[in-house]
Design goal:
By secondary structure, the chain is an all-alpha fold. It has a single domain (12-111), classed as Acyl-CoA Binding Protein (Up-down Bundle). It has 5 helices and no strands. Helix 3 packs antiparallel against helix 4. It is globular.
Length: 113
């Protein structure tokens, strides 16, 4: 079964607009963090756990026990680190194209072989 990629289409410009609309940058950077991890693992094939390790490292350095304790600046740092793991296209259409391609590839490899 395929994993889901939530918030497909989010990019830096959308993040800026969402911050203006919600007036809640922490919330928006958390959405972006989750998207980058999901897209990286599901579509780009980043090894599962890579993003969790980054999160754990940041929390350890900050002496935090839970994700909820991460500040806006912590989440901005994490987003930046996640972007260094794999290049997620900023263009929503390119994101969609890659996601569809991965679904088709998964289907063909799994069900037709």
């Amino acid at each position: 079964m395929m994993d889901t990629v939530l918030n497909l289409g989010i990019n830096d410009q959308i993040v800026e607009q969402m911050i203006k609309i919600t007036n809640n940058p922490r919330f928006v950077y958390d959405i972006q963090r989750r998207f980058l991890a999901m897209f990286g693992e599901v579509v780009l094939g980043v090894k599962r756990g890579t993003y969790d390790a980054i999160m754990s490292d940041v929390k350890t350095k900050k002496n935090l026990k839970s994700d909820q304790e991460l500040s806006t600046s912590d989440l901005q740092q994490i987003v930046s680190l996640f972007k260094g793991v794999a290049t997620v296209p900023n263009d929503p259409y390119e994101q969609l194209k890659l996601a569809i391609g991965e679904i088709l590839n998964h289907y063909l490899n799994h069900y037709l072989n």
